[in-house]
């Protein structure tokens, strides 16, 4: 991979912090955006801004065409059967809330059971708890082993005749673990149970073939895959989406409205009430262009090299460091704690050395409890990171370890 050519597409990477080269290693929270995505957003505001689906005029038709060709692009990216199965949302969080409220609300009642895993992001826990407060179903949780692998035998043992739904992340935002979602889906389907997959951390790093996976629902966020903020995707199987009630009511999601009763629009518009972020949606297709031109396999191989180089150096050179998550094939995410140091102090000192990492519970407090920690420091890589940056990070971390030790 020509890293220099890739980096030249990301103007923000030229920033300096405190007189040093900035090293951006918070890609799990959000990745940076190539110029072509920025250009698409600027073009959306300076050339084609008009509300979608409401106008006969040229500008509205152009904006609509940009949005709908982005839907087609997403459909192809994840190999969905039809563009109607692609619902645009504000992000993974809204997509999961939509599924919980609309699909969960339809199928989960008292005496029923939902299976989650201990490594879920709060976005895949709290929407279910909100529904649970109304419906009173039971939530069961799949545990992990010491390396951060899901305990698949325990997962299978959690199924009972009351199991109605499984919701699991494809990849953990803390441990980097890539879960065997294909196997989990096949097992659930053999028991007649549908599966929701939170793909927020998988979509930027792994090829997703929805039809091969056979997921019932799959969610992801544009801003974590080199795209704009405020845009996400919910994929749903057509037969589920057709049965589900709308999540929000408003313009664009109706067929006809009267005070006697309202009928709803066909897919995907039934789930897209109000004016969507049509400029961001159009820009998402440019982020997919970037990923496909660079090559997902090449990106994955490059990130794997960064991960193994950095992990080996950290373990060899920083006494007492604890790294959380060592599952085979994990994503390029390194969560860690320095011996005797608070995660905030480590993160703050790294920042003063130009290294941008995240600290805290990473919206995964149940996982923090399972790991027996309050929070961790997390460094995570993307396509544009270099081995030189990985070395700057480990050198800086060694300095911080000395200061805090
Ligand atoms: N799920 C996972 C695994 C995540 O890592 C995140 C964000 O970090 C989310 C869900 C929520 O994504 P968003 O904030 O884009 O809605």
Question: What can you tell me about this protein's structure?
Answer:
- It is a single chain.
- This protein is an alpha/beta fold.
- 40% of the residues lie in helices and 17% in strands.
- It has helices spanning 3-7, 35-46, 58-77, 92-107, 126-135, 152-158, 181-190, 210-213, 238-243, 278-294, 296-317, 343-352, 365-371, 387-404; strands at residues 16-17, 20-21, 23-24, 86-89, 113-117, 138-142, 163-169, 195-198, 217-221, 232-236, 254-258, 261-264, 322-324, 333-337, 355-356, 358-360, 376-380.
- The strands form five sheets. It has a seven-stranded mixed sheet with strand order 4-10-9-8-7-5-6, with helices on both faces. A four-stranded antiparallel sheet has the order 13-14-17-16, covered by helices on one side.
- A hairpin with an 8-residue loop joins strand 13 (322-324) and strand 14.
- The chain is globular, with a radius of gyration of 22 Å.
- The two termini are 38 Å apart.
- The model has no long low-confidence stretch (mean pLDDT 97).
- It binds pyridoxal-5'-phosphate (PLP).
Short description:
This protein has 405 residues and is α/β, with parallel strands linked by helices. 40% of the residues lie in helices and 17% in strands.
List the SSEs and their pairings.
Elements lengths: L2 H5 L8 E2 L2 E2 L1 E2 L10 H12 L11 H20 L8 E4 L2 H16 L5 E5 L8 H10 L2 E5 L9 H7 L4 E7 L11 H10 L4 E4 L11 H4 L3 E5 L10 E5 L1 H6 L10 E5 L2 E4 L13 H17 L1 H22 L4 E3 L8 E5 L5 H10 L2 E2 L1 E3 L4 H7 L4 E5 L6 H18 L1
Parallel strand pairs: 3-15, 5-6, 5-7, 7-8, 8-9
Antiparallel strand pairs: 1-2, 4-10, 9-10, 11-12, 13-14, 14-17, 16-17
């Amino acid at each position: 991979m020509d890293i220099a050519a890739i980096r030249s597409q990301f103007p923000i990477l030229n920033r300096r912090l405190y007189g040093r080269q900035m090293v951006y290693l918070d890609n799990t929270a959000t990745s940076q955006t190539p110029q072509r995505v920025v250009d698409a957003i600027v073009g959306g505001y300076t050339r084609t801004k008009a509300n979608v689906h409401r106008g006969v005029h040229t500008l509205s038709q152009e904006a609509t065409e940009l949005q709908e060709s982005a839907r087609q692009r997403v459909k192809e990216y994840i190999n969905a059967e039809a563009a109607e199965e692609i619902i645009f949302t504000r992000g993974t969080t809204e997509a999961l809330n939509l599924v919980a409220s609309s699909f969960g609300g339809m199928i989960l009642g008292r005496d029923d059971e939902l299976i989650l895993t201990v490594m879920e992001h709060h976005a895949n826990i709290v929407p279910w708890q909100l529904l649970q407060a109304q419906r009173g179903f039971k939530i069961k949780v799949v545990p992990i082993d010491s390396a951060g692998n899901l305990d698949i035998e325990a997962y299978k043992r959690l199924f009972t005749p009351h199991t109605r739904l499984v919701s699991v992340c494809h990849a953990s935002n803390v441990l980097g673990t890539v879960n065997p979602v294909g196997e989990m889906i096949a097992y659930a389907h053999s028991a007649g149970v549908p599966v929701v997959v939170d793909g927020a951390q998988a979509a930027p790093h792994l090829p997703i073939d929805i039809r091969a996976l056979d997921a019932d629902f799959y969610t992801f966020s544009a801003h974590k895959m080199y795209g704009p903020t405020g845009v996400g995707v919910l994929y749903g199987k057509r037969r589920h989406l057709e049965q589900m009630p709308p999540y929000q009511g408003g313009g664009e999601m109706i067929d006809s409205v009267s005070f006697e009763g309202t009928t709803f629009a066909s897919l995907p518009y039934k789930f897209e009430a109000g004016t969507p972020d049509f400029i961001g949606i159009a820009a998402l297709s440019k982020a997919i262009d970037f990923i496909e031109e660079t090559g997902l396999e090449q990106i994955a191989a490059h990130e794997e090299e960064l991960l193994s180089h950095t992990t080996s150096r950290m373990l060899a050179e920083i006494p007492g460091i604890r790294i959380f998550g060592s599952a085979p094939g994990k994503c390029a995410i390194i969560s860690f704690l320095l011996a005797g140091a608070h995660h905030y102090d480590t993160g703050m000192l790294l920042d003063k050395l130009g290294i941008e990492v995240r600290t805290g519970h990473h919206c995964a407090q149940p996982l923090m409890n399972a790991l027996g920690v309050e929070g961790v420091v997390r460094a995570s890589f993307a396509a544009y990171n270099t081995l030189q940056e990985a070395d700057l990070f480990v050198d800086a971390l060694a300095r911080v370890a000395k200061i805090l030790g």
